[in-house]
């Protein structure tokens, strides 16, 4: 059976559909921020690319542009003993932290998703901050892929939390351009670690 590899972000800079893992590897292995998925049908692969192409999301063109953009790092945490989840976020402009926020979620159903719900809440808070402060473009840095994939609709939304998040982001994307950038959690990234620390401290209050 033929597999179709849809590459939304890869080394060539152009969305593509490939039919071998060897060809796909050249596009995605070693490329920071690669975004791809395999499918059993060509139609599903095309739909995946269309979701990315039709969303108001721009890939970064240069490191300089990335530095000048408002970047907001988000993370989530969870306390099993309290059954509480939290978020932390750090807004960065020109490599300076201009805003920090943290807080606990209050939705009991969302607590079942543990720290993921915190990161989802942080992403929503990040967008609200950007819009309230008249930013026209934002980059959300996250370490859980659902933050991007649920927002775009490339992952299934199986519960009220992910469905609500998707609807929220789709609505906000009509008002602000959003880029999503995946970072590796606990990898020494200064701002990702800051967001993680803020989320953890919110649970201690």
Automatic annotation (TrEMBL):
Key word Repressor present? no
> What superkingdom heads the lineage?
Bacteria
Q: Which reaction does it catalyse?
A: Endonucleolytic cleavage to 5'-phosphomonoester
Task: Indicate yes or no for the key word Nuclease.
Answer: yes
Q: Name one GO biological process term.
A: DNA replication, removal of RNA primer
- Which EC number(s) does the record attach to this protein? 3.1.26.4
Enzyme class label: hydrolase
**Which parts of the sequence belong to the RNase H type-1 domain?**
66-204
Family named by the database record: Belongs to the RNase H family.
Instruction: Note the PANTHER family from the entry.
Output: RIBONUCLEASE H1 (PTHR10642:SF26)
Q: Which protein, by its recorded name, is this? A: ribonuclease H
Native species of this protein?
A: Clostridium amylolyticum
